[in-house]
Design a protein that fits this description.
alpha/beta; Aspartate Aminotransferase, domain 2; binds pyridoxal-5'-phosphate; 3-stranded antiparallel sheet; Aspartate Aminotransferase, domain 1
C-alpha cells in the first residue's frame, strides 16, 4: 500500500508503541491514587506534560490532556464562552475551520452566541484586517486554525493574535495540522489557547491536548474528579499520554530535516502532475503551506471516482477531510476558496509522511494520470 493520507491519521511509530506498553500492564496505576503504582503513573503523566509543553514553549501547568483534538476544540470554544457567563456573546472564526470548530460554533449559536465566519481569499488565507473589522465589544474569542487540514495553507496567526491581544480578546488556534510540521511556539505566535492531537504525529488515536495560557478564563466542560487541575475530569489515559509525549518529542527532533525532505517531494510531485495532467491545479499554491500537503483539483472528473481508481492500485488518498468522506456535499474549504461545486468535487488531497518515498510518488502520478484520462474519456463519450 502507498499511504498518502497522513492528514487523516498516521501509524503509531515503533518508539511510541514502546513508550506506551508498560502502562497497560505493570504500570497500570491511577495517577490520582496514593500508592506506589499510582505515584509511578503520576510521575509519567507529569513528565509527559513537561515534554509536550517544551515542544510548544509552554510551561507544563498550561497543558490540559483531552480525549482528542476534537474535545480540545470543544473545550476551548465552549469553555471560554462559559467562563464569561454570557456577558460577552460573540465568537469570530473562519469558513475553513475543521468541523470540530465549525459544528461547535453552530451549537453555540443555538445557545445564543453570535458567530462571525470570516471568508478566505483564493489562496485559502484569512485576512487579519477582516478579523480586526469583525470585532465588537462583545467578542469573547477568536478561533482561527494554524494550518488547514485540506490544503495545508498556513494562516497569519501572529498578526491575528496581535489584534486579539490589543483588544483584550482571547485567541484560540487549532494547530493539529501544524504541530510537528512547522515550529509552533505559543509565545512567538501570541497564542492563548491551542489544540493538539497525537494521532496526526505518529502517536495514538484518542488523545489530544489543549494549551491554556496562565490566567486565561476557561470553564471545564467535563465535570467530575479534579483531574487536570479541574479543567478536564476523567482518569488520565497514561499510556496514550506517554505515547503522545514520545510522538511529540520525535516530531520536534526531526521537524527541520523532514520539512525539507517532504517539501522537495511534494513540490516535484505537483510539478509532475501539472505537466502530465491537463487542467490540473494546485490549491493554495501561492500561500505558505505545511510541507506535506498537496490539494489538487482536476476539472471534469469526480474526485471519489479517482480515489476508487487509486485504491484499486493500492494508493490511499482522500477527497479532503476524513470526516466528510461519504457525504455528497463538496468541501466547505474548496467552496470558501472560490471553487465551483464541480471543481470542489474534483479535488483530491495527497498528504505525505515519514514513510513516503520518491518511488511512491512516481507510481502515484502514473496511476493518477491514467485514471483521470480514462474518467474524462468516459464522461466525454457518455
Ligand atoms: C484531525 C483534526 C482534528 C481532530 O482531531 P481528533 O484527535 O481526530 O479528534 C481537529 N482539527 C484538525 C485541523 C484536524 O486535522
Amino acid at each position: 500500500m502507498i499511504y498518502l493520507d497522513h492528514n487523516a491519521t498516521t501509524p503509531v511509530s515503533p518508539q511510541v508503541l514502546q513508550a506506551m506498553m508498560p502502562f497497560f500492564q505493570e504500570r497500570f496505576g491511577n495517577a490520582s491514587s496514593f500508592c506506589r503504582i499510582g505515584r509511578i503513573a503520576r510521575t509519567a503523566l507529569e513528565e509527559a506534560r513537561a515534554s509536550v509543553a517544551a515542544c510548544i514553549h509552554a510551561s507544563p501547568d498550561e497543558i490540559v490532556f483531552t480525549g482528542s483534538g476534537t474535545e480540545a476544540d470543544n473545550l476551548a470554544l465552549r469553555g471560554v464562552c462559559r467562563a464569561f457567563h454570557g456577558r460577552k456573546r460573540h465568537v469570530v472564526t473562519s469558513a475553513i475551520e475543521h468541523h470540530a470548530v465549525l459544528k461547535t460554533c453552530e451549537d453555540l449559536e443555538e445557545q445564543g452566541i453570535a458567530v462571525t465566519r470570516l471568508p478566505v481569499d483564493c489562496r485559502g488565507m484569512v485576512d487579519p484586517d477582516q478579523v480586526k473589522n469583525s470585532l465588537t465589544p462583545h467578542t469573547v474569542l477568536i478561533s482561527i486554525m494554524a494550518a488547514n487540514n485540506e490544503t495545508g495553507v498556513i494562516q497569519p496567526i501572529a498578526s491575528i493574535s496581535r489584534i486579539a491581544r490589543s483588544r483584550g480578546i482571547l485567541f484560540h488556534t487549532d494547530a493539529v495540522q501544524a504541530f510537528g510540521k512547522i515550529p509552533v511556539s505559543v509565545d512567538d505566535l501570541g497564542i492563548d489557547l491551542m489544540t493538539l492531537s497525537a494521532h496526526k504525529i505518529y502517536g495514538p488515536k484518542g488523545i489530544g491536548a489543549l494549551y491554556v495560557r496562565k490566567g486565561s478564563a476557561m470553564a471545564p466542560i467535563l465535570t467530575g474528579g479534579s483531574h487536570e487541575r479541574g479543567k478536564r475530569a476523567g482518569t488520565e489515559n497514561i499510556a496514550a499520554i506517554a505515547g503522545f509525549a514520545q510522538a511529540a518529542e520525535l516530531a520536534e527532533k526531526h521537524l527541520a530535516e523532514e520539512a525539507v525532505r517532504l517539501a522537495a517531494l511534494r513540490d516535484a510531485f505537483e510539478k509532475e502532475v501539472v505537466q502530465r495532467i491537463a487542467r490540473a491545479r494546485v490549491n493554495g499554491r501561492d500561500a505558505p503551506r505545511v510541507p506535506n500537503t498537496s490539494s489538487l483539483s482536476f476539472a471534469s472528473v469526480d474526485g471519489e471516482s479517482v480515489l476508487l481508481h487509486l485504491d484499486l492500485k493500492g494508493i490511499c488518498a482522500s477527497t479532503g477531510s476524513a470526516c466528510a468522506t461519504g457525504s455528497p456535499e463538496p468541501s466547505h474549504v474548496m467552496r470558501a476558496m472560490g471553487l465551483s461545486p464541480m471543481d470542489a468535487q474534483s479535488t483530491i488531497r495527497f498528504s505525505l509522511g515519514r514513510d513516503t518515498s520518491q518511488g511512491d510518488l512516481d507510481f502515484t502520478v502514473g496511476v493518477l494520470a491514467d485514471a483521470i484520462s480514462k474518467l474524462r474519456h468516459i464522461s466525454s463519450t457518455a
